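Continuing the series of single-chain predictions for the mutant panel. This is the parent chain; the variants come on the following pages.
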Amino acid sequence: MTTPTRYIDLTFLFAEPDEAEAFIDDCSELDYQTELGEYDGDDERYRWRVNVTHRLDPQSAAMTSLELTLRSLALRRGGRYAGWA
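Parent structure:
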């Protein structure tokens, strides 16, 4: 039995707006929906949050692949992966 697909929001944190915007540009090339906002969490190193939204099965190999791809892109731009919901 497969888990139904749904929209997943993956969250990435960045210290500088230009880092976040470069990450958004990378995601746009892959046709992912993104949303930029201010980060108001506990980690003071980061001020910007980018949510990447994509429809898929959260327990699938595609989800793992997406996480790995986006983590790599975020790291390249100075960001870090904060999780998904």
